[in-house]
Amino acid sequence: MQATAAPASIAELRTHFRQGKAELLDHFKASRASAPAATRLLKALARHVDGTLVSLWERCGMPAGAALLAVGGYGRGELFPHSDVDVLVLLPPASVRQPDGDAAATQAAIEGFITACWDIGLEIGSSVRTVDECIAEAERDVTVQTALLESRYLCGSRRVFTTFRHANTRAMDAKAFLRAKTLEMIQRHQKYEDTPYALEPNCKESPGGLRDLQVVIWVARAAGLGKNWSELAGKGLITPFEVKQLQRNEGLLKLIRARLHMIAGRREDRLVFDLQTAVAESFGYQSTPGQRASEVLMRRYYWAAKAVAQLNQILMLNIQERVDDSQDQPMRPIDEHFLERGGMLEVASDDLYQRHPHAILRTFLAYQQTVGVKGLSARTLRALYNSRDQMGAEFRNDPVNRATFMQILQEKEGQTHAFRLMNQTSVLGRYLWVFRRIVGQMQHDLFHVYTVDQHILMVLRNVRRFFIPEHAHEYPFCTQLALTWDKPWVLYVAALFHDVAKGRGGDHSELGAREVRRFCRDHDIARDDAALIEFLVHEHLRMSRIAQKEDLSDPEVIQDFAKRVGTPRYLTGLYLLTVADIRGTSPKVWNAWKGKLLEDLYRWTLRALGGAKPNLDAEIEARKEEARHLLNLHSMLPDTEGPLWKTLEVSYFARHDAGDIAWHARSLFRHVAATEPVVKARPSSLGEGLQVLVYAPDRPDLFARICGYFDGASFNILDAKVHTTRSGYALDTFQVTSPQLEGHDAAHYRDLISLVETQLVLALAGTGPLPEPSRGRLSRRVKSFPITPRITLRPDEKAQRWLLGVSTSDRSGLLYAIARVLARHHVNLQLAKITTLGERVEDTFLIDGSALQQNKKQIAIESELLDAISP
Questions:
Q1: How far apart are the first and last CA of the chain?
Q2: pTM for the full predicted model
Q3: How does residue 165 score in pLDDT terms, banded at 50, 70 and 90?
Q4: CB of 791 within 8 A of CB of 805?
């Protein structure tokens, strides 16, 4: 992998450079996917570029007093296939003045050199400075200071390079540099979701990526503690075992990044879904019926990133202690095993966990119980990292450890941070062996944005927040219920196990229930508590499904669910876990509408569990009375509602609350016999989006035209309730959201409401054929993990109406495409439940129509619907 002697002309240099690089890449591509092969490639590419730059420097007649330096990543003597080449043209000190003619010649030579670099295909990032300018710029910008720290001499004046090196070393403030790089690292981690387990991680910048290793070397170098892992080990900062771990995981990350560049054909550091399979196959991984090749690769990446994140934390704390001299701070004894120093939990001795394995779990209990402790020290983290072999079957079965684990769960506070630390240090997976199986496991359902273990810990965090008054504003109703809950740890256990059986095949709820039953038995959990925990794990998906897919105005739906949960305690536990679970999948999945559906289901089921048999007539009369009261508050005349209400069926009053009923009556009292469509809109009472009311003479394509308008105006329909009055009018209501509404004030809402009320009326005036639906673009994620479109069509128990279920990938125009098919077959829509789970939709429609009673037409409808929803 050595380049031959460089030729003279620019054309020859271009050919030589490109051929040499292509040979190196072809050799790497054909070689076995191994870390040593990647390391050889990176060094060979850097040497190849070195030789090319030196030849160009000599050709361009650069001034004798100037030097060419490699800086940044190139300064480390490694280049990835498509990384930028960062160079510094270092000029003599400003005190050495040149005549105007010489200065102009120097400028021309530099411009010619940089142009030549681009001409031959070198994508360089260049800067031209004197030594003084370098030092001044570094003082202003820590990024420049970091790049200069890794500078490497290529050619030119050795003297000016030596002067620069000495000046840069003198100007370095190790404490300030450490602080700046630490803050920069924290900010970078936040940008990349603060987890090594993002589903599309950046193998360079994400937590646990290559940048975390580079930061360690930078701050160690700035503090004079070493320039590589061996030198850090010589200074006692890391152990020989940790050096091996660092080299192994760094090698894997470099290999993945190099392969990623090769396959993308450009600088691409993100393991995006589009590329994961190709990168995995370049490693020799093959998909099997039970596991994708990309899953094998990503699991390997996550384990490496997790180890890097752990070692980064240990080393950064170690270096900080050396730089700040904080290792000499006084220590406060906590007990015989632990001390506190500077807010960090310290082990009493480096071999504590070898001598007392019980202390491993007690570390996290001490962390919870000790006021003022905000983290684990480098020494403690290292001791945990080196004690993983202590945590075998005997450790897991030890009654003392089981009691400690339960104590951690049952403490008054600190569970969120304790369990995150346990996962970060690999203790959680070693103690709960079933949890270890889902560490770093991807989820290909398009609405989870975390790996399974991170999702579980997010759900645990959400449950924990229900019991923290400071977070009451996030979940007011959940916090209210949590105040009456006597054993929070029961919910914590359910959260830990609810998805622990993901990825095994089969029903993960059922398999998880078995696992948690075993856990409860092993940990001597009382029978009643164990039964509740098992129920919560087994049923954790049911409440969400019923709320989002079934007609909650149907008393039988509520009664059936009430029988399933059995008691108010079981209902409350399931509600709290369900809210925590949905909010732990992705920031985009939860919305106020889903919150309202779940809360309505909870309240109505609680009433049924209290012995109140469903009395629909009484419920409707109560809603009417409340609606009349609201109309009075708006100074409406008595019996304003009468003409409209006389035309409405019982189902209308069952599906709307009093506030909506009053608003409809107020909006339509002058338009009950209108010949033209009436459209009214208002800000949603849920605080998100708009409520839109459409009242018009009914016709088969009405719902489709409404959906077509909302689609064209970039509104997302969250919910639709469709009614036909006795006098032949459609009274349809919609909950819609739009990016146009995010972050805007009341004036913008008023303008948008006026626009909707005007434009939707015009859209409904159309009489021509319905236009073809647009085939909205699919996202990258949907292309990478396509969902097989599914249609289910089944009659309800009374065989009078049909339930249509639609499952497919989300895209714009989807609801309009469905509505258009139904309109073409004169199928009436009575209820639409729109459920968007990330980039997957699970919609349910209540429909009727004579075509559904004929087998041939029913098959035709299903076939056309499948065509309409297919990507």
A1: 47
A2: 0.75
A3: very high
A4: yes
